[in-house]
Amino acid sequence: MNKNTQKHKRPLDRVSGSVQRVPGFMDMDNSPEAKFIRQAHELNERIKEINCLYGISKIVEQDNISLEEIYQEVMTLIPCSWQFPEITCARCIIHGSIYQTDNYQDTIWKQSADIIAYRDIIGVISVCYLEKMPDSHEGPFLKEERSLINAIAERLGRTSEQKKAEKALFESEQQLKNQNQLLKEKNIALREIMNQVLMEKKNLEERVMDNVDQFLLPLVEKLKNSDSQIDIGYLTLLEDTLKQLTSAFGSNVGRRMPRLTPRENEICNMIRSGLSSKEIAKVLNISHRSVETYRNYIRKKLGIINQKINLASFLSTLK
After folding, report:
1. 17: CB partners within 8 A, 6+ apart
2. If residue 110 lies in a helix (H) or strand (E), which one and from where to where?
3. Which string of DSSP letters, residue by residue, matches 35-89?
4. 184 is a domain residue
């Protein structure tokens, strides 16, 4: 081994596992030993770069880790992946927040890369040397280090997109779950209200019919059996109407055709009760022809004019 080779040969760094570089290290002679040292140094640098990318993957894959924690841990990982870890510092400015190593200083020996997400620049990574080092591809930095910082910036951009998409999806799922739960609760409350309304309606119908059966119908029956001058047609109609007091006929007719006049509604009720046109004319003290005219008006308004539909049967379906 010649003296020049011994003079420039540097031992492996016990801590980082790298070959420490000093001015003139890459300018050694082309002896086999010097060539071997250069190759070992380059190989060691590539291993550090691979370890860096692998380390970032491990950081990103952690469960329940926030973007802020990812940015800070990646900055801590960067220095040991550059040629001179002991004088390397790193900083990331993203979304207006700063994440950096404890020793960060913004020096003139710096390389940077933009962090891009959704085609917009959202931040920048900077790697600085704290001391002047020999010039290489980009100032004191190797071309592989340029590739590495670009890869880190790209990975952080993709990670930012992914984490924000996951957060948006999680929030949407939570919102959907909350809405579903709220809908279930409202459905339960609505069913309870409907059951209560139906029960109250049933109780009301029972009370009304009890009153009709106990008080009104007996009076009508007495009037029919007495020598009263009240027209029997009126009494029959009154009796039938009382029996149907809780039916939905009136409201159904009104919803089906709100343009019916009070007289037409009255005649509809009589037709439904089974009175003929002659009987209706007698009760209302109008002509038979007038009743027939009313019937035609009613059929027209109900949309069954010129159809072979019995008006009394049709009205019975509106109960």
Report:
1. 44
2. strand 110-117
3. HHHHHHHHHHHHHHHHHHHHHHHHHHTSTT--HHHHHHHHHHHSGGGSS-GGGEE
4. no
Are 23 and 136 found together in one domain?
Answer: yes
Cβ atoms 235, 224 nearer than 8 A? yes
**For residue 71, which phi and psi values (nearest 5 degrees)?**
-55, -45
Same domain? For 212 and 312 the reply is yes
- What confidence score (pLDDT) does residue 316 get? 78
Confidence of residue 293 (pLDDT cuts 50, 70, 90): very high
DSSP annotation of 273 reads T
Mean pLDDT of 18-24: 42
**Cβ(73)–Cβ(155) under 8 Å?**
no
Q: Is residue 122 domain-shared with residue 226, that is, in the same domain? A: no
- pLDDT tens for each residue of 226-285: 665 556 666 676 667 666 665 555 555 555 555 788 788 878 878 887 888 988 888 788
Q: Residue type for 86, please?
A: E
Q: How far apart are CA 278 and CA 288, in angstroms?
A: 6
Domain that holds residue 69: 3-166
Structural domains of the chain, count: 2
- List C-alpha distances in Å: 125 to 70, 99, 142, 265, 296: 13, 10, 17, 84, 88
223, 230 contact by CB (below 8 A) = yes
Which residues, including other chains, have CB under 8 Å from residue 3's CB and lie 6 or more apart? none
Structure tokens at 105: 């200083």
Would you state the pLDDT for residue 156? 92
Q: Residue 38 has which token pair?
A: 């250069």
CATH number, domain containing residue 48: 3.30.450
Best CA proximity match to 298, nearest among 250, 273, 261, 248:
261
Distance separating alpha carbons of residues 105 and 128, to the nearest angstrom: 7
pLDDT of 121 above 90: yes
Alpha-carbon distance of 36 to 31, in angstroms, equals: 9
pLDDT digits (tens, 9 = 90+) for 182-223: 999 999 999 999 999 988 888 887 777 776 676 566 656 766
